[in-house]
Every structure is written in C-alpha cells, then in structure tokens.
Amino acid sequence: MQSSKSPRRRRSVRAAVVALVGAACVAATAGSAGAIVGGVDSTQRHAFMASIPVSAEGMPDGVCGASLIDRQWVLTAAHCLDPGVGVTPQGTVRIGSEHRKSGGTVRAIERAVIHPGYENGMGETYNKHDVALVKLDRPVARKPIRIAERPGPPGTPTRLLGFGTTVDTPMVFAERLQQLDTRRGAAQECAPGYADETRLCTISRVPDAMACHGDSGGPQIQRGKGGRWELIGVTSGPGAPGVPCSQGPGLYASAPAYAEWIRDTLAGRG
Fold it and tell me: Do 207 and 222 fall into the same domain?
C-alpha cells in the first residue's frame, strides 16, 4: 500500500501499532480487566466468533478477532492484515470456539480484502475505514451473525467479545473467550475527531474495563429483533489518545456503515 506519510511519521505510526500488536494483534479499544481488560468468561456460545492468529515484531503468538458474517467470510479490522504496520496473519481462521488455541472449526485463508479507504494513523484519521474481509478456503457449518441495519442510539446496551490481553500491563492474553457489557457512546464521549458515522464511540458499563490488545477485529454486538445478537461494530482502537485500555473509551468501525461494501465484496464486485 502506498502512503503519503513522511518516513518519520510512518515510523511513529508503525511503532505505535506494533506495540499494540505485540500484545496480540494491534490493540483493540481502550479498555480494562479480563481479556478485554476487566471482562469475564463468555456466558454463552457464539458460533460466529472467530480468531485469526497473527505474528508481529517481537510477538510471534498474537491474535485478532473476527466475526463470521457468511458461511465462507469473516469480517475483521483492516489493521490486523496490514503488513505496513508489521502484522502477518498466519494463514488460518478459527471459528466458533470458546478457546483461543483449540476447538471450533479451522479454515485456511483463501484471500483477504482490505477496504480501499483504509488508513491507519493517529488523531482525526485514527484507523479510518478499518475493516477487512477474509475469505475462507471452504464454507463452515457454523451460523453467521447478522449485520444490524443500524447501530442503536447512544446509550444502547452492547457487548464486546475477544481473546485479547486481560490487563493493561504486563501483556497477559485470554485463553478463554471474554465478554464485556458496554453501551454505545455519543461521539463527544470519545476524543474530538475520533467518532463519526463510520466509527462508533463505545463506553464500558463496568469500571476500569474495555477491549485491549488482541481484541482488534472482534465483534461489538447488540440485541436485535427477537433478542438475537446482531453485529454493529468491529474493534478498531482507543477512543482517545494516550490512555491505557482500562480507562477507555473504545473506537469501533460501524459494520452497518460498510454493509454495501461487504455485499459487493462477497458478490465479487468489490
């Protein structure tokens, strides 16, 4: 990918991202406690939950989250697949497991498609269009999650899922799937310029908790019609500069905002 950033700017962005990846794939969202800092073991099975093993500089055993949105496709964060920030997917995806390194269904990656507008950076451009699709080498029997028509308004209860680090420091990653109850935040609850129509500000409903390193690409879900979970967000990064995960807020790429691009890509038009 080409970039207009100066060499010094590119090095600083790369260093910041790799530091997050070093914890298990470029960090997720600011947050705190149980793998997802401040999270707890998942209370139910999620057939759509997926994980992508990755390696990064100084961190050969990383991971990113993903969501099965079609029998042969998962949705994740673009920065989880970006060689420009030192991340290398290990070539497989694990779907439907409650454990980071075992269980579920494992498929090889056939190809990956990063959103054409993706830009990894800081400040107002932080993780712009941070979404990507990964095609599996063959379909799975697991049930995909439906992408919501729209995110609920600010205040809507949501939930985060991930295998990321469970504390701000040192880096300790979850082997068991973690969850954290959150809510949609208003744009002004994140730093100026971070949240917009395509990037959701997310606030923990638990003190000192939020998604963290290794949760990147994972799902933010809300209850839809009939109480079924539906996908609204993709873990992207912190919602403010310079804060530890546990202090939040978090920033999520809005899955509904990219529904047309997702449909076109799955149909071979992307």
Answer: yes
pLDDT for 62 beyond 90: no
Alpha-carbon gap, residue 158 to 221, rounded angstroms: 5
| Cβ atoms of residues 208 and 37 within 8 Å | yes
Same domain, 187 and 212: yes
Nearest residue to 162 (alpha-carbon basis) of 182, 184, 186, 144: 182
Query: Do both 103 and 169 map to the same domain?
Result: no
- pLDDT tens digits for 66-122? 999 999 999 999 999 998 888 889 999 999 999 999 999 999 999 999 999 999 876
187 shares a domain with 104: no
Chain position carrying tokens 């790429």: 253
Q: What is the rounded distance in angstroms from the CA atom of residue 217 to the CA atom of residue 210?
A: 14
Average of per-residue pLDDT across 10-15 = 35
As a whole number, mean pLDDT of residues 10-36 equals 36
Write the burial class of residue 116 (CB in 10 Å: 0-12 exposed, 13-18 middle, 19+ buried).
Answer: exposed
Provide the 3-class DSSP secondary structure of residue 9.
helix
Strand partners, 178: 41, 162
Residue 27 has pLDDT above 70, yes or no: no
Scan for tokens 């990653």, then name that residue: 173
* The pLDDT value given to residue 228: 95
- 136 and 190 share one domain: no
**CATH code at 221?**
2.40.10.10
Residues 139 and 157 in one domain: no
Domain limits at 111? Answer: 7-26+47-144+259-266
